[in-house]
Amino acid sequence: MANPLFLFLLFLNVAAAPRAGADGADPCAGRRIYIRHLPPRFNADLLRHCGADAFPLADASAAATSAPPCESLANHGLGPRTHPRSRSWYRTDARLLEPFFHRRILERDCLADDPARADAVFVTYYAALDALPYVLDPALLDASARHGEELAGFLARDQPRILSRRQGHDHFLVVSGSAWDYAQSPGEGPRLWGTTSLLRRPELANFTFLTVESRMWPWQEHAIPHPTSFHPATLPHLRAWLARARRSRRGTLMLFAGGVSRPSRPNIRGSILAECANRTDACAVVDCSGGKCSHDPGRYMRAMLGAKFCLEPPGDTPTRRSTFDAILAGCVPVFFEDLAARRQYGWHLPPARYDEFSVHIPKETVVFGGVRIAETLEAVPEAEVRRMRKRVLEMAPRVLYRRHGSTAELRGAGKDAVDLAVDGVLRRIRRRTCAQDEGRPERIYAMEDDSVEM
Ligand SMILES: *[C@@H]1O[C@H](CO)[C@@H](O)[C@H](O)[C@H]1NC(C)=O
Ligand SMILES: *[C@@H]1O[C@H](CO)[C@@H](O)[C@H](O)[C@H]1NC(C)=O
């Protein structure tokens, strides 16, 4: 057992700003980020307009699916605590990842004051919040191709050297949504409801967008985990939760938390609902339709703690927040296609290790091949389920968003979703700027496998 004084010194060291190592190496080399501050209309003002009159487009009857209510802004976007005495659980609205990520970058080490000395430039634009008028107001539908135009104009006008130095290749920002929703072609055809063309703006073409879901060929964006409701600030709080998940009694074989309306065409979600209706002995369903679950983690977390496997079928898009809730709960995720996670979150969950912490059942075999999910999962030996649960809980700290202002002890214990996203984006930008420096522009967009090994 390490003695307490040693631990104290260790944590003190982690908390202090990085100093030169014994060998005189610069601890911030290759890791300096310049924060590109923007006029408030690109960020802070968007938050002030959370009320019913300012996002008049917010439809109260569909509150969970339109604009986030003001109370979600508490705690830098984590939302209010689920309960006055709860320490780590919040009613987090996923769309407020932008201000939260901004807050976390601000408290990071290795920030550069001088953009010319920075390795990367973080653009403090709240893109998905700025998109709300376009996606909620029918009158603005035809203007949605212009999302990002104002930002591009500002960056080109104000201190233009910051942008031109690397032709935008060193710039990155967060978009708390699916890349698909921001990648509509600006030119042809009628505008698609609920989408903009932010990722198609030529002026922003070289930026890296961190989105909660990427497209099939994501040379422009990279996926980072959907935020969940668990945001511990201390190591004991994190450990207490993981211990609870480890010890939890799991009487349910499998759980589906999601929309419960039967789809009209045969698909995997329909097959799951049909099978669960038949196999009430093995399958539990938590009704999350109409956004019922989005601000209420208690609704599904308890059920996830009681299940061995959590079914993660694609919905409107391939990925779902529920995957990350399941990982936190130690509920082994069951995927039905690789786009659901394996081909998305390579910076956070090593693709080569999916077989150790998840189950893959191709959706075609279920929908058209007569494969029964419950029978497949019942056939997994109990020791194997336990092994997978152990692995999935080892992954949990990597996909959760630690609270801002966490203790040095927690920060020193391992990297969370923000830390790994920043590492990943720095790696990607370094590769691109090296290609520029070496005069090999064809390498800039090379789709190299940039996922982590563990
Ligand atoms: C993007 O990068 C390419 C290659 O470096 C460059 O030719 C192009 O001008 C850049 N685009 C913008 C809008 O800066
Ligand atoms: C449900 O049970 C019925 C009767 O046992 C069976 O014919 C049917 O195939 C089952 N459906 C599913 C989806 O398991």
Automatic annotation (TrEMBL):
Keywords: Glycosyltransferase, Golgi apparatus, Signal, Signal-anchor, Transferase, Transmembrane
Entry GO MF terms: glycosyltransferase activity
Signal peptide: 1-22
GO cellular component entries: Golgi membrane
InterPro entries, alphabetized: Exostosin, Exostosin_GT47
Pfam families in alphabetical order: Exostosin_GT47 (PF03016)
Domain Exostosin GT47: residue ranges: 28-368
Membrane topology annotation: Single-pass type II membrane protein
Location, primary (coarse class): Golgi
Record localization: Golgi apparatus membrane
Family: Belongs to the glycosyltransferase 47 family.
The name this protein goes by in its record: Exostosin GT47 domain-containing protein
Naturally occurring in which organism (per UniProt): Setaria italica (Foxtail millet)
Gene: LOC101768924
